[in-house]
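Issue 218. Parser rejects a valid record. Input:
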Amino acid sequence: MRLQDEPDLPPQINIVPMIDVIFAILTFFIMSTLFLTRSEGLPVNLPKATTSQRSQVPAKITITVDEKGQISLNRQPTTIDALTQQVRNLVGYNPEALVIINADEKVQHGQVVAIMDRVRQVQGAKLAIATQKP
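Output the parser choked on:
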């Protein structure tokens, strides 16, 4: 039996589950867009680095060093001696040019440093080393 003095509780809509679903969908879309990247270099096994980042710069020049030590510039085979002039020709007057070095983790450190030295000789070229998260 109900007393007349007891107030009726107003109907309520609980929106917490709806917010949880929206955040789950948002998380799904954010995570799925992280995997929508394309590779500019030849396929190599990149070393792991926890601070690795992906940068989006309009003009990218990719230098790839495979596990055998063979060098490619934008998927075209080249030598370390011709690298400086070829990069200089590709960079031109573009201040936004980014040179990315994709070196297999089995490549000797000295060869990667030699390539970095050649790229640093080019005025205006920004240097980056490609890694992948562990």
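Fixed in the parser; the record now loads. The chain has a mean pLDDT of 82.
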